[in-house]
Amino acid sequence: MYIGSTSQSGVLHLLYEIIDNAVDEAMAGFCKNIRIRLYMEDDVNMAEVIDDGRGIPVDVMPKYNKSALEIIMTTLHKGGKFNSDAYKVSGGLHGVGLTVVNALSEYTTVTVKKNGHIFRMKFSKGTPISQLEQLGDTSETGTTITFKPDREIFPVTNFDSTALKDRLRYTTFLNPGVTITLIDERYEAPETDVYNSKEGILDFIRYMNTNKTTLTSIIHSKVQDGQTQVEYALQYNSSYDEKTESFVNTIRTIEGGTHVVGFHTGLTRAVQNYISKNIKQQKSDVKITGDDVREGLTAALSVLMQNPEFEGQTKGKLGNSLIKTMVETDVYAYMSRYLEEHPMDAKAIVEKAITAATARESSRKARELARKKSIFDGAVLPGKLADCISDNPDETELFIVEGQSAGGSGKDGRDKNIQAILPLRGKILNVEKANIEKVFDNAEIKTMITAFGTGINESFNIDNIRYKKIILMTDADVDGSHIRTLLLTFIYRYMKKIIEEGYVYMAQPPLYKVTKGKEIFYCYNDQEMEAKMAEFGGKAELQRYKGLGEMNPEQLWETTMDPKRRVLKKVSITDALHTDELFTILMGMDVQKRRKFLQEHAEEVKTLDV
Fold first, then answer.
1. Which of 77, 237, 238, 510 could form a disulfide with 212, with the two C-beta atoms 3.0–4.6 Å apart?
2. DSSP secondary structure, 331-376, as one string
3. Averaged pLDDT for residues 431-453
4. Residue 87 and residue 91: Cα distance in Å, rounded?
5. Which tens digits make up the pLDDT trace of 17-52?
6. Which residues are catalytically annotated?
7. How far is the C-alpha of 442 from the C-alpha of 490, rounded, in Å?
8. pTM (predicted TM-score)
C-alpha cells in the first residue's frame, strides 16, 4: 500500500523514504550534507543514511509516555510533517515513511545527535528491541538510520544503484547547496559518487541537454505566493521530442499532474499569442497546437507547497487543482514578457513551432491513419501477422522477428494458442533521425502499430494492447543487435508506456549447438560452449548459428520460444535521463558525438561479432 511493491522497486522505495526525510531537513534550511552507504550483511543489502539536520526529536511525549522517536518509528501518521511549524513544505504524504521502513525491516537502528547528546534506539520489524539510550555527548546534530530489509517480505533485497544515482542527481539539482555522497561497498571495488549543484534547475537543464544542439538560452523563473513556490527552467533544442521533468517538494512526479498541465497550457498560450501578434505566417496559416510548441522542449518544473495531494504514497501524480491556475498564470505572464524582450530566442521558438505544425499538417493523412480503428486499433490486422487463437492480452505473446525465414520457423514452431509471429522485412526506419511524416509513412512501423493495437500519439491507449509480452526476437549478431536497437528506439520514442508497463522483452537465442552422439546441447554464450566442449574433450560437433533462420521449428521452440525453457530479458527504464541521452548519441544526427562516445567506450566491448 505504501511502497507500491514488494519487488526490487519496493526495497528501493524504503531507502527513498529515509533520504526524503533528510531532504526535507535540507529544504527547511537545516541540512547541508547527506551521506548514503550501501553494504552487505548475510547476503542482504544494507543501507545507512546520515544527515546533519536537526535530528529526530527524542523528548518524552506525556500523552504517550514514550519518546517522540519511538512514536515516529512505530505509529502511523505521527511524523513531524503534520506540524506546519516543523516543515513548511515536505515530500511526505501521510507522515508514515519511517514507520513503514521500520515495519518492513528485519532490524532498524536510529542514532540521533541532538541537544548536546547522542541517542540510539533499535527496532525489529516495527517493534522496539531496546530502550532509548544516551551514549555520550556531542556538539553536532543529525540523524543516522541503518536498516536491513526483511527477507520474509522482499524476495530480492538489492538496491538498484542506477535508479538511486538518477534520483540523487536530480535531488541535488532541486536543492542547490546540498551535497549528497553515495558510497557503495557491496562489490569488490567500492564506489563513491558525490552529487551537488550550484545553479539548481539551470544545471538540470544543461544536464538534460547534454549532447543536444540547443536553439535558445535557458529561460528561468521563480515565483513565491504565500507558502507556495513555483520554479521552472526551459530550453529548446533541435530534436523532435519534449522532455519535461516535474517535481513537488523535490519528489519526482513521473505521471505529471495539475502543475504540469498548468505549465504546458501557459507556455502554449504565450507562444500562440506572440505568433498571432507578431508573425505573418506564410504557410497556409497553419494552427499552432500545444504539441507543436513543445517539440524540442527541455524543461524542469519544481513546486514547493504545503499539503500536496498525490495519487498514492508513491507520489506519481499531483492532484491539487489550485496549483494549475498559479503555474499557468505565471508561465503565461513571464513567457509573454520574455518573448517580447528576447527577439532571438522568440524567433527560434516560433520557427520551431511553425516547422512542427507545418510537418504535422503535411502528414495529416498519415496521422489520421493512426486514429482510425480500422487501421491501428486491431479491426484490420496486417496480412503478414500470424495471430494466435487467444485474445486475452494477459496470456498472449507477440514475437517480432527479422526476415521471412525466421518468421516461417517461428510460425511452425510456436504455441498457436497464445503466441503470434510478426516477421519484419529488413531494418526499420531510424525514428531518431526522422520527422513524424516519415515515421508514419514507414510500412514496417505501420504494421507494428496495427499489431500492438494501442494506437499511437494522441490516439494511444495502453488498455487496448493486444499482447502483454512483446518479444523482440532477432539474430545473435551485429545486424540482429542493430535491428533490435532500431525497434527499441521506435518503441521508446513513440510508445514508452509499453516499456514502462513491463510489456517489452528481448529473446535470447542460442549461439551454439553442441552435439555428441544423440545428445544435443544449446549454448547461449562462449563460456557455456567452451565448458561443454571441454566436458566432451573435443569429441563433439559444434555448430555456430548465424541466424534464427538456420533453426528448424522444433529447435526454435526448444531454445527460444518455449515458456518453460527459454530465457527472456525484460526491457525497463531505470535512469530515464541517461537512457534519453544514449538514444540521442547513438541514434541521432550528430556523427562527431557518436564517434567520440564509441572511442571512449571501445575498451568496454567484451565480444565483437565480425
1. 237
2. HHHHHHHHHHH-HHHHHHHHHHHHHHHHHHHHTHHHHHHHH-HHHH
3. 84
4. 10
5. 999 899 989 988 999 999 999 999 988 899 999 999
6. 402, 475, 477, 479
7. 12
8. 0.66
